[in-house]
């Protein structure tokens, strides 16, 4: 196994697979980062936010952890450029169909 890879059993999902609890939606600014707007909390430790990184707007899907009583962004996550975000957004129906076929 490479130093970057993890085995399947190392991953733990904290989302609700039954769809009982819809994600929390908000449009608040993160008090620590003035360029970070939290759009949606998809679970206790995962958020989707829009932020400005190195002068470019990105959609950030990331896990957070608590350190010394303060929520910090973790390494697990992805920042999508606007081109990548638009590609994903345009393919949502295809993704939904694939999920339905594999459920």
TrEMBL record:
<feature type="domain" description="Transcriptional coactivator p15 (PC4) C-terminal">
    <location>
        <begin position="40"/>
        <end position="90"/>
    </location>
</feature>
<dbReference type="InterPro" id="IPR009044">
    <property type="entry name" value="ssDNA-bd_transcriptional_reg"/>
</dbReference>
<keyword id="KW-0804">Transcription</keyword>
<keyword id="KW-0238">DNA-binding</keyword>
<protein>
    <recommendedName>
        <fullName>Transcriptional coactivator p15 (PC4) C-terminal domain-containing protein</fullName>
    </recommendedName>
</protein>
<dbReference type="GO" id="GO:0003713">
    <property type="term" value="F:transcription coactivator activity"/>
</dbReference>
<dbReference type="InterPro" id="IPR003173">
    <property type="entry name" value="PC4_C"/>
</dbReference>
<dbReference type="GO" id="GO:0003677">
    <property type="term" value="F:DNA binding"/>
</dbReference>
<dbReference type="Pfam" id="PF02229">
    <property type="entry name" value="PC4"/>
</dbReference>
<feature type="region of interest" description="Disordered">
    <location>
        <begin position="1"/>
        <end position="36"/>
    </location>
</feature>
<dbReference type="GO" id="GO:0005634">
    <property type="term" value="C:nucleus"/>
</dbReference>
<keyword id="KW-0805">Transcription regulation</keyword>
<dbReference type="InterPro" id="IPR045125">
    <property type="entry name" value="Sub1/Tcp4-like"/>
</dbReference>
<comment type="similarity">
    <text>Belongs to the transcriptional coactivator PC4 family.</text>
</comment>
<dbReference type="GO" id="GO:0060261">
    <property type="term" value="P:positive regulation of transcription initiation by RNA polymerase II"/>
</dbReference>
<keyword id="KW-0539">Nucleus</keyword>
């Amino acid at each position: 196994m490479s130093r970057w890879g993890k085995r399947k059993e190392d991953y733990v999902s904290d989302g609700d697979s039954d769809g009982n609890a819809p994600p929390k939606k908000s449009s608040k600014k993160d008090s620590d980062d003035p360029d970070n707007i939290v759009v949606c909390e998809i679970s206790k430790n995962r958020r989707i936010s829009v932020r400005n990184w190195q002068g470019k707007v990105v959609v950030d899907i990331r896990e957070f952890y608590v350190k010394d009583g303060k929520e910090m962004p973790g390494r697990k996550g992805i920042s999508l450029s606007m081109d990548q975000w638009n590609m994903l957004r345009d393919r949502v129906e295809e993704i939904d169909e694939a999920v339905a076929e594999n459920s």
